[in-house]
């Protein structure tokens, strides 16, 4: 049998095989939206604010560094006060409760655990959390993060007064640098 007679059928068989394999490749699935999408806009850059103490007029420079965790399943943050780490924590999705949880500790040994609930418009994040002091005492706190464009937000904290009503404690504007 001449070589030419074998080469042509083998060549055609290879072309058909390659074509069949190419046609059977699945279309890549579009990545599902992350359940952390409501807080993902915080990632990137350095969020800064200068907070003036009304009692002694001292100013605390705050820098909040927010990034995706290496496994992309949490959003981590480190908040510095005057160049020194103060808060270290993360946001993560809890599939059992279908909520965004957050956890952080501070340089004095407090532990904070809470949940973040986005408004449907995506501009405001409502947070409820417990702050556990090193001595074991716990305080329930609420806060809001209200987005102000792509590179700014207002952070407000609310504490309960003696009657059980929620009263504003402070409101701070952060800007992304």
Structure description:
By secondary structure, this protein is mostly beta strands. The protein has a single domain, classed as Beta Barrel (Lipocalin). Helices cover 15% and strands 51% of the residues. The protein has two helices and ten strands, in the order ααββββββββββ. It has a ten-stranded antiparallel beta barrel with strand order 1-2-3-4-5-6-7-8-9-10. The longest helix is centred in the N-terminal third of the chain and has 22 residues, at 3-24. The chain is globular.
Number of E-state strands: 10
Count of domain modules: 1
Structural class: mainly beta
CATH superfamily: Calycin beta-barrel core domain
* Overall residue-averaged pLDDT value: 87
Number of helices: 2
| Run of helices and strands | HHEEEEEEEEEE
Cα-based radius of gyration, to the nearest Å: 26 Å
Helix % is 10-25%
Q: Would you give the CATH topology?
A: Lipocalin
Any low-confidence stretches, pLDDT <50, length ≥5?
A: 3-24
Architecture, according to CATH? Beta Barrel
Task: Please outline the major beta sheet.
Answer: 10 strands, antiparallel, barrel
Strand order of the largest sheet: 1-2-3-4-5-6-7-8-9-10
Shape: globular
* Portion in beta strands: over 45%
Write the topology of this structure:
Layout: H1 3-24, H2 37-40, E1 46-52, E2 59-68, E3 74-81, E4 84-94, E5 99-106, E6 111-118, E7 124-132, E8 138-147, E9 152-160, E10 166-176
Antiparallel strand pairs: 1-2, 1-10, 2-3, 3-4, 4-5, 5-6, 6-7, 7-8, 8-9, 9-10
In short:
This protein has two helices and ten strands; from the N terminus they run H-H-E-E-E-E-E-E-E-E-E-E. The protein has 177 residues and is mainly beta. A ten-stranded antiparallel β-barrel has the order 1-2-3-4-5-6-7-8-9-10.
């Amino acid at each position: 049998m001449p070589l030419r007679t074998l080469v042509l059928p083998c060549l055609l068989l290879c072309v058909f095989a390659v074509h069949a394999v190419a046609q059977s490749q699945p279309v890549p699935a579009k990545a599902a939206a992350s359940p952390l999408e409501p807080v993902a806009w915080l990632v990137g850059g350095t969020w800064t604010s200068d907070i003036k103490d009304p009692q002694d007029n001292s100013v605390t420079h705050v820098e909040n560094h927010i990034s995706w965790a290496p496994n992309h399943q949490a959003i981590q943050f480190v908040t510095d006060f005057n160049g020194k780490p103060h808060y270290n924590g993360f946001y993560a999705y809890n599939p059992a409760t279908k909520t965004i949880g957050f956890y952080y500790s501070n340089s004095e040994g407090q532990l904070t655990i809470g949940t973040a609930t986005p408004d449907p418009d995506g501009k405001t994040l409502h947070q409820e959390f417990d702050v556990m002091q090193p001595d074991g005492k716990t305080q329930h706190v609420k806060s809001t993060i209200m987005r102000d464009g792509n590179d700014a937000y207002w952070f407000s904290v609310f504490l309960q007064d003696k009657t059980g009503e929620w009263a504003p404690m402070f409101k701070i504007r952060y800007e992304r640098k």
